[in-house]
From TrEMBL, chains A, B:
The gene is LYS20_2. GO terms for molecular function: homocitrate synthase activity; metal ion binding. SUPFAM superfamilies: Aldolase. InterPro entries: 2-IPM_HCS-like, AIPM/Hcit_synth_CS, Aldolase_TIM, DRE_TIM_HCS_fun_bact, Homocitrate_synth, LeuA/HCS_post-cat, PYR_CT. Belongs to the alpha-IPM synthase/homocitrate synthase family. Homocitrate synthase LYS20/LYS21 subfamily. This is homocitrate synthase. It comes from Saccharomyces pastorianus (Lager yeast). Catalyzes the aldol-type condensation of 2-oxoglutarate with acetyl-CoA to yield homocitrate. Carries out the first step of the alpha-aminoadipate (AAA) lysine biosynthesis pathway. PROSITE patterns: AIPM_HOMOCIT_SYNTH_1, AIPM_HOMOCIT_SYNTH_2, PYR_CT. Its cofactor is Mn(2+); Mg(2+). It catalyses: acetyl-CoA + 2-oxoglutarate + H2O = (2R)-homocitrate + CoA + H(+). Keywords: Amino-acid biosynthesis, Lysine biosynthesis, Magnesium, Manganese, Metal-binding, Transferase. Residues 398-428 are annotated as: Disordered. GO terms for biological process: lysine biosynthetic process via aminoadipic acid. It comes from the Eukaryota.
Length: 428, 428
């Protein structure tokens, strides 16, 4: 209710609302992620993923409904018995049949969902808002009676009627749910729309707000961030964003966003250097490659190429980096073997090769490299050969010495190299 | 200046400002994209890409600076001679040496950029704001004197001093630039911050505003959209978003976002069914795979899996789709060969196989499929075998008929199939 004060000189609502420094993660790799086209997790793999997520530090782990299949129920029970720090949730339809099974699995909480858009009311369950409210109250009171957490969420919230939404959320908040959920089930929402809806909802309910954003139009990370600004507290993520269609807010991508806004909070709470391992674990399990342009772990996320960028990065990495690769156990690369290179990048390579050349000599070498780079793609050996040949010419006319340099090639650490294109693990 | 009226009851600035229905695209695959780690485009490939972009309908094509290398200059001249509908731009440092070369290439316009953040002023060019303004005026007047378009952009705008920014933009706007540019060079900006800056800038300059967003923290599409809401007119994109580090706003992803907001404008202006071909062209050229979760063209972007989703999609695709795959020449898939499947999806497959079974029979089959799906990953043949065996048992006890069905397998179009994981083109 803090946002409703009419005094225009008071602090802005955003000053009270933001949870950017106080958010929680609900990882849904083992629920939403199971709905990814390629996903089939056996029990062992589910346990491995759950343990990795727990180690990383997610606050909640959400599992597929125990009524989805017999094995889904057994897996849910098995994961509840692992004794993880993360709370275990399962995700069910707003129906007593599902709720009765869910509460017996040993979960710490139940996430209930029902479609509230006109599309889903007409073509999915066919129920009206009164029916939805009645079912919701019944299921919520039942789950609460078992002493575990309960979240009530609408589905396709951004295409639902605002008054319908606020009515049902107000009702379930009064009964005492732990969280209400806003879900952009089709991935249509945009950030300012998200901010408005969350801020409005925040003035209606006193419980926490959880958000779930699909990525069909590429806004799932930005929407999650903006939801936190508007007062949401919990964000649904999955590893690499896997889920229905092209998925939801990815765990790694959201960490990239959040560390910029709340570095101390994020670094103290989550083991960021584990992101790469967790992504590889899940990518292998569902047989996909890490996208080349993935935040943080994409093969070129910390590769700097244009001469003007390389120059400044060498002087101070903050010039062209908002993320520090070290925070994620990653490394920075300066790509100098190309026609866009500049003499500062080449000078850094000359220093790395432990050679001694003047600036004007380095500029001369750079011109040679750019000339070859105009003809074809270069690799590091090409550049090193040009540098070493030049060095041999200007310093020691004896061929002996030039040869000696060549033999030392293997001793030079390729710290500044760009990795080969991570294109493919050839599998069927 | 429309936004500056003091009447609090007047229409909101946003009502005047939005260019969501009136935006333009500057494709920078051949400039920013050349700065992608893997990119080496020879002349032929550059021309092929430029022609494809022109055919798609981008408004501008931006090319690498002609001073980057000798071949870059020749390629720039060659592309200017193609007679494309798109206007050709080249991108240079704010320096007369660069400008003199650029205006001789035959381009329709020059994009000038200079670092304005304290980081870049200290570690890149080392100049103060007075020097920047002086250089800018000189370069702009020179380019204008040649009768071609000129854009002035700051670099790392979101970490630059606001007053410095507004001062320089006001200055260059008065001289008469065609556009000013805001660049999130390090990918740090968030949507509400973008909206505020663009809206403020809009009240200071009368020329168009162009935006350039890097994707380090996953917000490049959302920031572009929000910039248009705030009054920006032009967005820099590249195919698949390729660029420095993990790149910028991707062409395809932005189209997914924009078609939701401005369907008529987008469909009338851009050949959306060409996105897949253009992405494949560029992906092949830079040796990357299309990310599995790419908007529109990711292999699962239109794949529906959970039973509850499949049911509703079969009744009305709008239930779980904000994008119509047909708009992009793509197809929808219902993934029914898994343990999360439901009887509506299986019934659709039964119909597709031209078999006749009651609902309760289909439910019985669905239970069998879910049971097998609990044990292992399924493929379409597994499901079809279960369906056909069941059908054979309940309708024609003769083995003859069951065998006949099997022979007809190859005639059944696998319309509802999910494609195999598009994991890898095995290359070096």
């Amino acid at each position: 209710m803090t946002a409703a004060k009419p005094n225009p000189y008071a602090a802005k609502p955003g000053d009270y609302l933001s949870n950017v420094n106080n958010f929680q993660l609900i990882d849904s790799t083992l629920r939403e992620g199971e709905q990814f086209a390629n996903a089939f997790f056996d029990t062992e793999k589910k346990i491995e993923i759950a343990k990795a997520l727990d180690d990383f530090g997610v606050d909640y782990i959400e599992l597929t409904s125990p009524v989805a299949s017999e094995q889904s129920k057994k897996d849910c029970e098995a994961i509840c018995k692992l004794g993880l720090k993360a709370k275990i949730l399962t995700h069910i339809r707003c129906h007593m049949d599902d709720a009765r099974v869910a509460v017996e699995t040993g979960v710490d909480g139940v996430d209930v969902v029902i479609g509230t858009s006109k599309f889903l009311r007409q073509y999915s369950h066919g129920k009206d808002m009164n029916y939805i409210a009645k079912s919701a109250v019944e299921v919520i009171e039942f789950v609460k009676s078992k002493g575990i957490e309960i979240r009530f969420s609408s589905e396709d919230s951004f295409r639902s009627d605002l008054v319908d939404l606020l009515n049902i959320y107000k009702t379930v908040d009064k009964i005492g749910v732990n969280r209400v959920g806003i879900a952009d089930t089709v991935g249509c929402a945009n950030p300012r729309q998200v901010y408005e809806l969350i801020r409005t909802l925040k003035s209606v309910v006193s419980c926490d707000i959880e958000c779930h954003f699909h990525n069909d139009t590429g806004c799932a990370i930005a929407n999650a961030y903006t939801a936190l600004e508007g007062g949401a507290r919990l964000i649904d993520v999955s590893v690499l964003g896997i889920g229905e269609r092209n998925g939801i807010t990815p765990l790694g991508g959201l960490m990239a966003r959040m560390i910029v806004a709340a570095p101390e909070y994020v670094k103290s709470k989550y083991k960021l250097h584990k992101i790469r391992d967790i992504e590889n674990l899940v990518a292998d399990a569902v047989e996909v490659n890490i996208p080349f342009n993935n935040p943080i772990t994409g093969f070129c996320a910390f590769t700097h190429k244009a001469g003007i960028h390389a120059k400044a990065i060498l002087a101070n990495p903050s010039t062209y980096e908002i993320l520090d690769p070290q925070d994620f156990g990653m490394k920075r690369y300066i790509h100098f073997a190309n026609r866009l290179t500049g003499w500062n990048a080449i000078k850094a390579r000359v220093d790395q090769l432990n050679l001694n050349l003047t600036d004007s000599q380095v500029k001369e070498i750079t011109a040679k490299i750019k000339k070859l780079g105009d003809v074809r793609a270069l690799n590091i050996d090409d550049v090193d050969s040009i540098i070493k040949n030049f060095h041999a010419e200007v310093t020691t006319p004896q061929l002996q010495s030039a040869r000696k340099n060549k033999q030392e090639d293997s001793d030079v650490p390729a710290l500044n190299s760009v990795p080969a294109a991570k294109r493919a693990k050839p599998t069927v």
